[in-house]
Design a protein that fits this description.
2 copies of one chain form a homodimer. Chain A is mostly helical. The first copy, chain A, is built from 9 helices and no strands. At the A-B interface, helix 6, helix 7, helix 8 and helix 9 of A face helix 6, helix 7, helix 8 and helix 9 of B.
Amino acid sequence: MTTETLQSSRERLLEAAATLTYRDGVGIGVDALCKAAGVSKRSMYQLFESKDELLAASLEEQAADYVTALLPAADDDRPPRRRILHVFAQAETQASAPDFQGCRYLVAQIELKDPCHPASQVARRVKENLTAFFRTEAEAGGASDPDLLARQLILVFDGASARAGIKADTRAGLIAPTVAALLDAADMR
Amino acid sequence: MTTETLQSSRERLLEAAATLTYRDGVGIGVDALCKAAGVSKRSMYQLFESKDELLAASLEEQAADYVTALLPAADDDRPPRRRILHVFAQAETQASAPDFQGCRYLVAQIELKDPCHPASQVARRVKENLTAFFRTEAEAGGASDPDLLARQLILVFDGASARAGIKADTRAGLIAPTVAALLDAADMR
């Protein structure tokens, strides 16, 4: 195959992996992934060592969009408290999409049940970066215990996403007061 | 088969379903379930209409133990606030087990990705009962908004269980102050 064809096959496999594992779970078969991508299994194994590596690469590729969709712009000059609330407002908007099944970086780890899986490691790193954002803002906002507040916020983030994914709660009027209570308890400006 | 044999096969299938779906996910095959239970597929289909029904029955059967392990005794006379904290302390103990993968009633729903699946419906009912416990205690403890507090508590419960299941957080020093902040924000006695 030409480099160009390989590149296009790679992109289609990453896209198929992102879409199908989110919709059907990480147990989705290689055959289904290759079929959806219109790529032969032979080509897939030229591009990725294994399905596990494909999953990991697919989560890695989605990470930039994930972060951009959630975080405030770097030159956003609102106070830390507002910047934190921005993340939860964005997450709430995402969760209202009819095909929302929870944060893909949480769901993948739950389904893989193996913290050492390459895709779990990618997912964990993405969420650690989100936790680090919360921690930086907590510190900038004078939180009494920035570490604790950051851990509380990612806990609420994951809980809200998991529960929205299973349609357990409408979320209406839930997240903002929950986050506000934790920010207040930390004396966050 | 005699009624006794059928009963024993049923119990072994329920046990295998509980153990294997928790360990490996809901995608576990009928063959693996029957093999682990030492029951023929023919017998399985005499006892359960489908694997979906077996999963649902297995979650149903675990429910009583789940509730007993988490909730305070009915004649427990501690104040509501302490009764709520008891649930989180119990959950924290469970989460420290090496094979803990998160609350089985949350994980099953996330993996099934279908709120109409019979097993999702069982799981949802079990968690709704836990939410109802929180609501009753919130009201008894004079919470300013018992509905909101109950939704916040189940959100933290699920978030903590999901994150413990993926080994994302040690949980040490996290849950008690988080729950306390929410109880305080609700002016809970």
